[in-house]
């Protein structure tokens, strides 16, 4: 949204100008969700990403963020949560977890870790808040897992958009 005034009006910025700016900000705030809603109108041949999704997957192929998430997941999470987010006897299937967790809950758990003290289960989710490889790539890890959880991405090493089939 453009908030600039016609050039000739600029020197007359007074207390009314200030009110005008506050009003304009209010309008901008209200109109943003409307604009987002308009952007997400489904279209033929639209990629799986409709503007609301935290990932880009087209015909089962991923952009570099999702691919990065796949790799970081493999480096940091797979040993407990199993290949492809599918879970293990030690840690839950994140593909299922993300069907009911919010992104904020996901981030909090990864940053702070967790131990379920109400059960006999002694398995620990470590805190990754001091691990830059996880913290700096958390959006990508979330995007990858969310694409898996939403069922738009199969198991295994994803193919990248634009790559040859043998890649
Ligand atoms: C050392 C093993 C281990 C590693 C490594 C690990 N986790 Fe966990 N994680 C667990 C365990 C065990 C739990 C269940 C903890 C509980 O029940 O309190 C868990 C729980 C979670 C949950 C909550 C799931 C739910 O359904 O409530 C999320 C989200 C999560 N882990 C994400 C990650 C991510 C992302 C990574 C990699 C950056 C990761 N974990 C690495 C062991 C691990």
Q: Got a strand count?
A: 5
Q: Tell me the number of structural domains.
A: 2
Structural class: mainly alpha
By CATH, the topology of the largest domain is: Cytochrome Bc1 Complex, Chain D, domain 2
Lateral arrangement of strands in the main beta sheet:
1-2-5
What does this molecule look like?
This protein has 167 residues and is mostly helical. It has 2 domains: 33 residues; 104 residues, Cytochrome c-like domain (Cytochrome Bc1 Complex, Chain D, domain 2). Helices cover 45% and strands 6% of the residues. It contains 7 helices and 5 strands. It has a 3-stranded mixed beta sheet. Strands 3-4 form a two-stranded antiparallel sheet. A hairpin with a 2-residue loop joins strand 1 and strand 2. Helix 2 crosses helix 7 and helix 4 packs across helix 7. The longest helix has 25 residues. It is globular and about 50 Å long. 17% of the residues are buried. About 25% of the residues have low confidence. The site of heme C (HEC) has 23 residues, from helix 3, helix 4, helix 5, strand 3 and strand 4.
Q: What is this structure's SSE topology?
A:
Elements: H1 15-39, E1 57-58, E2 61-62, H2 64-76, H3 78-81, H4 94-100, H5 103-112, E3 114-115, E4 124-125, H6 132-135, H7 138-149, E5 159-160
Parallel strand pairs: 2-5
Antiparallel strand pairs: 1-2, 3-4
Helix pairs in contact: 2-7, 4-7
This protein binds heme C.
């Amino acid at each position: 949204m453009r908030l600039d005034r016609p050039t000739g009006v600029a020197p007359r910025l007074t207390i009314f100008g200030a009110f005008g700016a506050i009003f304009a900000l209010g309008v901008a705030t209200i109109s943003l969700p409307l604009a987002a809603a308009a952007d997400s109108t489904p279209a033929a041949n639209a990629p799986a990403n409709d503007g609301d999704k935290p990932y880009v997957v087209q015909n089962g192929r991923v952009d570099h963020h999702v691919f990065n998430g796949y790799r970081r997941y493999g480096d940091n999470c797979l040993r407990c949560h199993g290949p492809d987010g599918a879970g293990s006897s030690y840690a839950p299937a994140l593909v299922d977890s993300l069907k009911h967790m919010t992104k904020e809950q996901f981030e909090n758990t990864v940053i702070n870790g967790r131990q379920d003290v109400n059960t006999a289960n002694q398995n620990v989710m470590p805190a990754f808040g001091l691990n830059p490889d996880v913290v700096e790539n958390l959006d990508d890890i979330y995007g990858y897992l969310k694409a898996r959880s939403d069922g738009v991405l199969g198991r295994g090493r994803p193919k990248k958009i634009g790559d040859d089939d043998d890649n």
